[in-house]
Amino acid sequence: MNISLQTRTRDHVKTFWKKTQDNEIQSMFPTSISSLEEALALFENSLQNNATSYGKVILVNDAYVGDIWCYGIDETDEKMAMLSIVLFDKSKWGQGIAATVIPQFLDDVFHRYQINSIGAFTYASNQRSLRALQKSGFLFVETFEEDGVTSNYLETKKRITP
């Protein structure tokens, strides 16, 4: 299985929007984006020099299967960002794809931005997501409940290499 990260395009955003309207996928990750137009506007904003989000698409054997991105990038005060990853191709769930791409993406983000840590939320019921984050070096910070859903917050720090 050949897994790679590639640059996002408007067409990827359109595909991602369509594929993630699935009820099962939506039950696995929270989102505040309510329309394709909003998703496209956020993508366009991510292309600006002062963008606070950055993402890649995930390809498996050259097929587009999901996205990984950072948002809320703060290089000034907290020097951190938040991570999201969604595999919309359910046939790829449980194959270790997230655990493979998360470290690659983290290396890219830590080199690209002047941040020291990255946080991630995952629903407590999404055990695959929790395991992928932990395999990628994220440490459990806390559990909390919001809108009747129990979630976990994890965080990883920039690794200083000699």
Chain-wise SSE layout:
Layout: E1 3-7, H1 10-19, H2 23-26, H3 36-46, E2 54-60, E3 63-74, E4 80-87, H4 97-112, E5 117-123, H5 127-135, E6 139-146, E7 149-157
Parallel strand pairs: 4-5
Antiparallel strand pairs: 1-2, 2-3, 3-4, 5-7, 6-7
Helix pairs in contact: 1-3, 4-5
List keywords for this structure.
Aminopeptidase; alpha+beta; single chain; 5 helices; globular; 31% helix; 162 residues; seven-stranded mixed beta sheet
- Order of strands, widest sheet: 1-2-3-4-5-7-6
Whole-number radius of gyration? 15 Å
Which assembly state applies to the chains in this document?
A: single chain
Structural class: alpha+beta
What is the gist of this entry?
With 162 residues, this protein is an alpha+beta fold.
Describe this protein's structure:
This protein has about 160 residues and is of the alpha+beta class. The protein has a single domain, classed as Gcn5-related N-acetyltransferase (GNAT) (Aminopeptidase, 3-Layer(aba) Sandwich). The protein contains five helices and seven strands. Strands 1-2-3-4-5-7-6 form a seven-stranded mixed beta sheet, covered by helices on one side. Strand 4, helix 4 and strand 5 form a beta-alpha-beta unit. The chain is globular, with a radius of gyration of 15 Å. The N and C termini lie far apart (about 30 Å).
